[in-house]
Specification:
- The chain is built from nine helices and nine strands.
- The chain is of the alpha/beta class.
- Strands 1-2-3-5-7-9 form a six-stranded mixed beta sheet, with helices on both faces. A three-stranded parallel beta sheet has the order 4-6-8.
- A hairpin with a 2-residue loop joins strand 1 and strand 2.
- Helix 3 packs antiparallel against helix 9 and helix 4 crosses helix 5.
Length: 247
């Protein structure tokens, strides 16, 4: 039996749900994986036995490569829109999530993977977790990722990434800008600190945590409802770019 390219596994233990996603192409995102992640997060949101969520990816040099590889294989505007809207829908769910989402990052993050992390509440990363936005070279503006990422690292930080597509920023740069909250040399050190953090967080009032997240949503400089519109705009612009480049 052929192994599926995409995978999402969930484990619930001591009121903590660990969601692990993967893709055979260095943990890239695609429509199938986005759909599975959305379904999984909705199920966990409705599970009263879960109070915290940990998001991680399968072991790879890349934590997440983003959606660009799938977009480049699309031939129609409708297909491009479908992929980007699915990305926007997932981000919207995460931003409105009532339970804290803690990311465990061990590997490089590219393009929309950064938007995924920016939608989380707290991020533990290793020194191997450098970041880059390179999709502008292919004519695809990262409009969906721009919204949560800019809210996280500021306009200056986003500009540094988007206008330097060949450059990698290391994990300590991401820590300084506020995308990461802790950086560790070794994954074993990260996991030890993460376990202590989750144990402490599990003692917090669920209502208090939900109130903090609700208030954070109100204070954001943009509204999650703009995500779908950004997806449609990015799809249209990219389609125009493809048409112009083939003439």
């Amino acid at each position: 039996m052929e192994r599926s390219k995409e995978s999402v596994f969930t484990k619930v233990e001591n009121k903590i749900a660990t969601i692990e996603f993967g893709h055979l192409n260095e943990n890239q995102l695609d429509s199938v994986l986005l759909t599975r992640l959305e379904k999984t997060f909705v199920e966990i949101e409705n599970d009263s036995k879960v109070s915290l969520v940990v998001l991680k990816s399968q072991k790879s040099d890349f934590f997440c490569r983003g959606l660009l590889p799938e977009i480049l294989n699309h031939n129609t505007l409708a297909d491009i829109q479908t992929s980007l809207v699915l990305l926007a829908q997932l981000f919207k769910i995460l931003l409105k999530y009532s339970k804290p989402i803690v990311a465990r990052v061990d590997g490089k993050i590219v393009n929309d993977g950064l938007g995924l992390i920016a939608c989380c509440d707290y991020v533990f990363a290793t020194e191997a977790s450098a970041i880059q936005i390179n999709q502008m070279k292919q004519g695809l503006a990262p409009l969906v990722t721009q919204l949560p990422l800019t809210d996280c690292i500021g306009t200056s930080g986003f500009d540094r990434l988007v206008w330097s597509p060949k450059s990698w920023q290391n994990a300590y740069w991401a820590l300084e800008k506020g995308l990461y909250h802790h950086v560790f040399e070794k994954i074993s050190e990260l996991d030890e600190a993460l376990e202590l953090f989750l144990d402490e967080l599990s003692q917090f009032s669920l209502e208090a945590m939900k109130t903090i997240k609700d208030n954070k949503l109100i204070m954001q400089r943009y509204k999650p409802n703009l995500l779908e519109q950004s997806a449609l705009t990015a799809a249209k612009n990219f389609s125009h770019h493809i048409e112009a480049s083939t003439k």
